[in-house]
Design brief:
Length: 269
Amino acid sequence: MQYDPVKRRLGVVFNSTPLLRKLFYHLLDLLLLRAWHIQRELRAWSSDKKDRSLAIYDAGAGFGQYSYWLSGHSSKWTITAIDVKDEQVADCNAFFQRIGRPQVNFEVGDVTRYTKPEAFELVVCVDVMEHILEDEAALRCYSTSLRSGGMLIISTPSDQGGSDVHEEGEGSFIEEHVRDGYNIDDIRAKCLRNGFSKVDARYSYGAPGKVSWKLSMKWPLLMLQTSKLFFIVLPFYYLLAYPIAFVLNMFDVRMKHPTGTGLIVKAWK
């Protein structure tokens, strides 16, 4: 399926007021298992940094969900967020100004070209690498932009069924993906040869997460693609499905998975 048209429909609904946009962010935090994994890593990273002035780079920021989460944890952190979509960047800048968070700035840019040498302590890259062919160019830009000791955190599909591809010849569930998923050893090697000295990669979306993803994301997205009328049905669907997905998400973030359809990668310069 094409994910961008669904995202545009959601944007129209939730961009109308700051309150609705905040609600949208909170819904994404609840529904998206990758947000659970990323926020867990960010909490660990930030545990001793809330009182320090730090610079963060949100690479391929999309709706700005993670820039919002990070900016809510410390007003001393400045966040530079990059995305290729002009309209999305304009919407995000307007929203962050309206809610009084001028330390967050969105710019139109390409993650495979954008560099700010040794400017950032953290680079966040969520659901981006699977969309770009020149992934090693992006990794070089990330390492160049990090200060010594800085960390990159990536969430991306794995080659163990990521993008809902399980057999050779199957198409990706998200048509905008240029690769179905990364081999865990391959992404480690790419990080190491593009400026990073240490890499920790682990699987996400293990057995519990696979079921949760279908309940909370795959089936609702298919409904929305079928008809806009499902916007009316969706709240009732989630009343039934989300309690189950919530428990599954809790298990997924607490378990160590021998395999999984997602990857969480941390790399240090």
